[in-house]
Amino acid sequence: MTPEEEEAIRREFEASRKEAHKQERPQQSQGPDGFELNMFSQVKHVIGIVSGKGGVGKSLVTGILATELMRAGKSVGILDADITGPSIPKMFGISSQRIAAMDEHLLVPAVTDGGIKVVSTNLILEHESDPVLWRGPLLMGVIKQFYEDVYWGELDYLLVDMPPGTGDVALTVFQSLPIEGVIIVSSPQDLVQMIVGKAVNMAAMMEVPVIGLVENMSYFVCPSCGEKHELFGPSAAQETADHFGINMLGRLPIDPAIAKVCDAGTIEHHLPAHLLDGALEAITGRDA
Questions:
Q1: Backbone phi, then psi, for 160, in 5-degree steps?
Q2: Which of 59, 183, 241, 266 has the fewest other C-beta atoms within 10 Å?
Q3: Is residue 3 part of a domain?
Q4: Phi first, then psi: what are they for 255, rounded to 5°?
């Protein structure tokens, strides 16, 4: 973050502080043991990106949706709740940044070139390859601090990149953050219905709506002939979505161009457009 960007954030913070002292905002709705935003932050929509297992591209979908929302003129933040396997900072080219302290109790998130605000454990570790060897209570405390103690400012959307599966951290996010809906990410394989079912059932138990399903690594388009190949067999995504009564929001291809921009940290600048129009429409439609 440049000195000019830090100064801009400080000015924004001071303006928010003065406004907050003038009037008390209504408290944002919370879960049963809900975390509360600080008085200098306001988030309109909190959306979770989840999966029933790891390795299906959940963080990729989070990055794509954040980029597309930013391109649509929305103010966006990402809370990287995948504490032990964070990949968001590298994807956005901000691995060298660190979360900074402001005032006595507030943290300043890293900011991407496009203005997306990001908090992630990789932004507090000395080296991004350092392992996170933390037990449950500490993990829960990090999620709480990332939500409550970060100066988010005014956001249209906060995307929460959830850890895979249905463990402690996922449960904490569902119970404590005002998640208004989740997008489930899957991949084409024989076990897809069981894996998606775990995520659907957890959301149902937590009384959180499922916005829909995205299938990653769905197909490959031959660069020579343009023919579409389903390398892992025919997609069962639509069948799975129908089985659970949820919306099918899109299928992502295996595309070296996508992998290249993520590895280079240039997803905001060079991500191909219109990859997940269905998912984007389902999210922004909640403003109506």
A1: -105, 110
A2: 266
A3: no
A4: -135, 115
Instruction: For residues 48 and 248, give the distance between their C-alpha atoms in angstroms, rounded to a whole number.
Output: 16
Torsion angle defined by CA atoms of residues 87, 100, 109 and 22, in that order, rounded to the nearest 10 degrees: 160
Q: Could you give the number of structural domains in the chain?
A: 1
Dihedral sign for Cα 12, 71, 276, 164, please: negative
Per-residue pLDDT of the chain (288 residues; tens, 9 = 90+): 666 666 666 566 556 555 544 444 334 444 446 899 999 999 999 999 999 888 889 999 999 999 999 999 999 999 999 887 788 999 999 999 999 888 778 999 999 999 999 999 989 887 777 777 666 678 788 889 999 999 999 999 999 999 887 777 888 889 899 999 999 999 987 677 888 999 999 999 999 999 999 999 999 999 899 899 998 888 889 999 999 999 999 999 999 999 999 999 999 999 999 999 999 999 998 775
H/E stretch holding 139: helix 136-148
pTM (two decimals): 0.87
Query: Exposed, middle or buried by CB within 10 Å (0-12, 13-18, 19+), for 132?
Result: middle
Place of tokens 């299906």: 56
CATH number for the domain that contains residue 60:
3.40.50.300
Q: Which of 280, 28, 53 is nearest to 164 (CA)?
A: 53
**Residue 63 belongs to some domain of the structure:** yes
Any domain includes 8 = no
Domain assignment of residue 241, given as a range: 34-283
